[in-house]
Design goal:
The structure is a homodimer of 231-residue chains. Chain A has 231 residues and is an all-alpha fold. The first copy, chain A, is built from 12 helices and no strands. The first copy, chain A, has 2 domains: 75 residues, Homeodomain-like (Arc Repressor Mutant, subunit A, Orthogonal Bundle), CATH 1.10.10.60; 151 residues, Tetracycline Repressor, domain 2, CATH 1.10.357. Chain B binds a DNA duplex (18 and 18 nucleotides) through helix 1, helix 2 and helix 4.
DNA sequence: GTCTATATTATGATAGAC
DNA sequence: GTCTATCATAATATAGAC
């Protein structure tokens, strides 16, 4: 935390008369808004250009704030980046946990089908997430280490368990479940990361809602298999 | 072309005594070597960091040359980038054309199987190619337009025709052939672009030769289907 | 919290000696 | 073709007024 920010927090903790308190709250609201704007702008910039390619100035410009406010709110460039990753991956994990919680009791094959459908739709709606990971996950380095150590939780176990269960039911293609999960990630998400090229070759945007659904359907046809008939 | 380079070429065209000619040839050889070193270094840098993230100085450092030689040999930053793309995509297209030429007369299903196998092996051996495209193909912009207009040839038609033929033989999953090609590209290549994360989650490098072959096998299991029995 | 101003380093690009 | 030196701009980051 920057010193000035810490001081402001301390001033708030101390007793303040009513009028001053209102002003403090107004300022806090504006601060929170600025911070959010910067965070969203930084998400887009880091997704598009990667850590090196993005600049605090372009982030500030996109967020419509003065460039030094980016550093003020997040201390360093790596600080903004970490905040972006925490926010993006946190949101992603939460979305899946809530989805899975809603599917309690559903059989694993259906469950896997449904969260894979969600995954495809999310890849179309939030390709930034794929880009953010993509820029880091390709080469060893401090940032991917940080992601692995502080943000990558036990999400993969859930996918693995569901795939194993679907395989045991004879409903999913055979093979190492986590390997298959990465095949799925590639098949499901890559087309949205190549959207400009795809648009030229296919003659339509992969983000077109109808296409997204068709895409999800075909992806599932690749991985799911008809289970053997019982008796 | 830089003026100094044009002058050197002119001097070469003029008559020169034997000793001087040898020196000119030595210089040309060194120049060509420098250019090649820069091109290879630039390929790695652009693949890793994208156009904005890479710098002419980091390219020069990697190539072990003085930083201004990068500009001398390629005029501008976009000039180096274009040379990299021409070289990388040219090599890629040539490799496939030669492979296909060698497969003249082979039935389309086998042909598709074999060039897909090559594609997977190439993605493992040269992930730079996927990165170079990846950094540009995600968003509209001058560079992807340049790629589409000057480098993207008729390669996609070949893939489409082979996929259609394999579908007609009942040996390939149904669906829009070019859409399926992008699904294949994602399934085949994405795992190598996430190598650092994959290594952590799977416990082994996706570049491991045995894994590459297993990966290629599973990818084909996703897309190829048993054709209906005859008679 | 925000704004102006500034320090410092990195970057793309050029000029001129050899 | 390469090397030294340099320029102009853009980058990360900080200091201090309000």
């Amino acid at each position: 935390m920057p010193e000035s920010k810490a001081k402001a927090a301390a001033a708030q903790d101390a007793g303040l008369e009513a009028g001053a308190l209102v002003n403090v709250r107004k300022r806090q609201a504006r601060s929170a808004e600025t911070r959010t704007n910067i965070l969203n702008a930084a998400t887009q910039e880091f997704a598009e250009f990667g850590f090196n390619g993005a600049s605090t100035r372009s982030i500030a410009k996109r967020a419509n704030v003065l460039h030094n406010l980016v550093i003020y709110h997040f201390e360093t460039k790596i600080g903004i980046w970490q905040a972006v990753m925490r926010h993006a991956l946190g949101w992603y994990h939460q979305a899946f946990e809530e989805r899975l919680a809603g599917l309690r009791g559903v059989d694993p094959v259906t469950k896997l089908r449904l969260i894979q459908l969600d995954f495809v739709r999310m890849a179309a709606e939030h390709p930034e997430l794929h880009w953010l990971m993509s820029h880091e996950a390709g080469q060893r380095g401090e940032r991917i280490e940080w992601i692995i150590n502080t943000l990558l939780g036990s999400g993969f176990e859930t996918w693995r368990d569901l795939i194993v269960a679907a395989q045991e039911a004879g409903a999913y293609v055979k093979g190492d479940p986590l390997h298959l999960h990465y095949l799925f990630i590639g098949a499901a998400g890559r087309i949205f990361m190549l959207s400009a090229e795809v648009e030229h070759v296919l003659g339509k945007s992969p983000f077109d809602p109808d296409f997204v659904e068709e895409h999800a359907r075909v992806v599932q046809e690749l991985f799911f298999r008809d289970p053997p008939r019982k008796s």
